[in-house]
Design brief:
Layout lengths: L2 E5 L19 H11 L4 E6 L4 H8 L5 E4 L4 E4 L2 E4 L7 H10 L10 E4 L4 E4 L5 H20 L4 E5 L2 E5 L6 H12 L5 E6 L5 H6 L5 E5 L9 E3 L2 H17 L12
Parallel strand pairs: 1-2, 1-10, 2-3, 10-11, 11-12
Antiparallel strand pairs: 3-4, 4-5, 6-7, 7-9, 8-9
């Protein structure tokens, strides 16, 4: 039996932190991921909302698969793929970034330029500042959203701005599963945020979905409390594959 392990980064492999650049893998966790990537019959893929270059620099493990920008950029041992329709929205993303410049006057805001997408972070803002950031962001984005020129989603203290393309982590996961052509492989996806639900949905009948942290509504099959439990699960998966590749069983669903 073969397995494809698909892992979100922020909130899954690293805890949620104040600013994106502070989310760093420990040396021990990087060694563990590298060992996972070297395990026979196990393929590792990192799936992130971060830009491809950023997530590769964070993980720093060669010869594994990376999905960045919610699926708009993908790279693996066989090469790189950019979602073709996303390219034509690059000038628009650049214009919107300029439109959002007034937000930078508010303490605690971070406007992250990921080339194909933009993220407005407000974790560092005060409660009143966060409300102002959200209100102004929605105001600046309203004309674009009304004209269906962008897609706006909300995560953990972040507003994501993406091209209005029917493409997300779920579709990117299906694309890479098809590209890998690993017959009868079982995909296991672990993520923690709203954008990971797209992947949970597509894996409902063909794989296993694990959510880090509770949510009122989720398509996940199993739930973990925090990042520490993710690594315990990864150890469990690796040990069982190495000892008996044909009988991986997931732990009981947490109530």
């Amino acid at each position: 039996m073969k397995y494809i392990l698909l892992l979100d980064y922020d909130g899954t492999l690293t805890p949620i932190v104040k600013t994106p650049e502070l989310a760093k893998l420990s040396s021990a966790n990087r060694r563990h991921l590298k060992k996972l990537a070297e395990t026979k019959d196990l393929t590792v893929c990192i799936v992130s909302g971060r830009a491809l270059k950023d997530i590769k620099n964070k993980v720093k493990i060669p010869d594994i698969y990376y999905i960045g920008n919610h699926g708009f950029e993908m790279e693996g041992p066989q090469g790189k793929m950019i979602q073709s329709q996303a390219k034509k929205y690059l000038p628009l993303m650049s214009k919107i970034k300029k439109d959002l410049k007034p937000l930078l006057k508010i303490k605690g805001v971070i406007v992250e330029d990921k080339k194909f997408t933009l993220s407005v972070h407000y974790r560092l803002a005060s409660p009143s500042g966060a409300r102002k950031i959200k209100a102004l962001t929605e105001k600046y984005l309203k004309p674009y959203a009304k004209a269906k020129r962008i897609r706006v989603t909300y995560g953990k203290k972040v507003i994501e701005i993406r091209p209005p393309i029917k493409w997300d982590k779920g579709k990117a996961v299906l694309w890479i599963l098809n590209a890998l052509k690993i017959k009868d492989a079982i995909p296991i996806y672990i993520g923690d945020d709203v954008t990971d639900e797209d992947a949970f949905r597509v894996l409902k009948k063909i794989g296993v979905a694990v959510r880090v942290g509770r949510a009122k509504k989720s398509c996940a099959d199993y739930f973990l409390r925090e990042v520490g439990e993710v690594y315990k699960l990864l150890h469990f998966i690796q040990n069982v594959i190495e000892s008996s590749p044909s009988c991986v069983k997931m732990p009981k669903r947490k109530k």
